[in-house]
């Protein structure tokens, strides 16, 4: 059963790709979503959502993708947080992720050259990363796959940081799209709770999306959740970090 919760989490954590992260999230005004004309009809078309979102992001030129994922089982909780700032014009990016006390910073120029700093306690190491973020995927490509995992229904609008967003929700095991590639081998009989949300502005920008699910393991309940947000769209600045010279001196790119 431990393998199943891990498999489900991996399936739904499509967008992490080892390079997104969390912290500094925006806030949504409390209260029930209000009725309004939907920006998209239900069920959502993942390709349409992704294409329109990416068009907005690319016109803006930059963004920061913030992510938090959590898995809990047998009284133990594992959280992964991070962020990736991207300048689409230059291709430069700066990612920052923290996993179990290990902080990984990665800076890339957009020409294939990148450097990485890993800090654990008072120990710091530099390296040329073997894997780097796919900025095209982060800009929106992953949304098509994510939206395809669930059957979303429109639930009105909310105010998030002063911006009206359209809320789409998927709740219950029946909301899972078992034919989606990510859930191809999923046994839904052990799922006890499933919920997912996508928030979209009038112009098609997906400001936030995520899911949570719970599984009966027979020995208790295990859960997994993911929340991702697009922040500072058009105002993100990606600058060379102060540690870059030291990274160059200690690596060969």
UniProtKB/TrEMBL annotation:
Short name of one Pfam family: DUF7537
Superkingdom as given in the UniProt entry: Archaea
Name recorded for this polypeptide: Uncharacterized protein
Organism: Halobacterium hubeiense
């Amino acid at each position: 059963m431990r393998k199943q919760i891990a498999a489900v989490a991996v399936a739904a954590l499509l967008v992490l790709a080892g390079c997104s992260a969390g912290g500094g999230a925006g806030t949504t005004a409390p209260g029930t979503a209000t009725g309004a004309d939907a920006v998209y009809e239900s069920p959502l078309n993942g390709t349409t959502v992704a294409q329109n979102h990416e068009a907005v992001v690319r016109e803006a030129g930059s963004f920061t993708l913030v992510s938090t994922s959590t898995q809990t089982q047998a009284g133990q909780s594992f959280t992964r947080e991070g962020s990736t700032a991207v300048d689409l014009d230059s291709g430069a990016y700066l990612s920052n992720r923290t996993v179990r006390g290990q902080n990984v910073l990665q800076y890339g120029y957009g020409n294939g050259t990148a450097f990485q700093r890993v800090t654990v306690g008072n120990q710091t190491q530099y390296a040329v990363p073997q894997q780097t973020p796919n900025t095209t995927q982060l800009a929106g490509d992953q949304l098509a796959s994510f939206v395809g995992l669930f059957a979303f229904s429109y639930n009105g609008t909310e105010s998030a940081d002063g911006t009206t967003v359209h809320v789409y929700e998927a709740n219950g095991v029946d909301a899972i799209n078992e034919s989606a590639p990510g859930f191809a081998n999923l046994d839904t009989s052990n799922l006890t709770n499933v919920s997912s949300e996508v928030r979209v502005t009038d112009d098609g920008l997906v400001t936030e999306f995520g899911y949570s699910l719970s599984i009966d393991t027979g020995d208790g309940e295990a859960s997994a959740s993911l929340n991702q947000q697009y922040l500072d769209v058009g105002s993100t600045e990606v600058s060379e970090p102060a540690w870059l010279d030291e990274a160059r001196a200690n690596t060969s790119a």
